[in-house]
Amino acid sequence: xxxxxxxxxxxxxxxxxxxxxxxxxxxxxxxxxxxxxxxxxxxxxxxxxxxxxxxxxxxxxxxxxxxxxxxxxxxxxxxxxxxxxxxxxxxxxx
Length: 94
Hints:
Elements: H1 2-24, H2 28-43, H3 48-55, H4 61-70, H5 78-91
């Protein structure tokens, strides 16, 4: 179970790093599919999984989830997305 969680976290970290890069390079057309992939990964951590994420010091999961819901609709939230992704990237130490 823990091995599976670590694997999922690594996938999440990779996606977050990739999305952060696309945002900083202003490749907005590539961001939306990445954000949906991140959201899919985050949905694996419902219920008990959120507790595991908290114990692994990943503090911004809800922030990313909320941000992802809004990003595809408007690019006004790009700065917020960058901030959330950067904070998350620094808390994912795997």
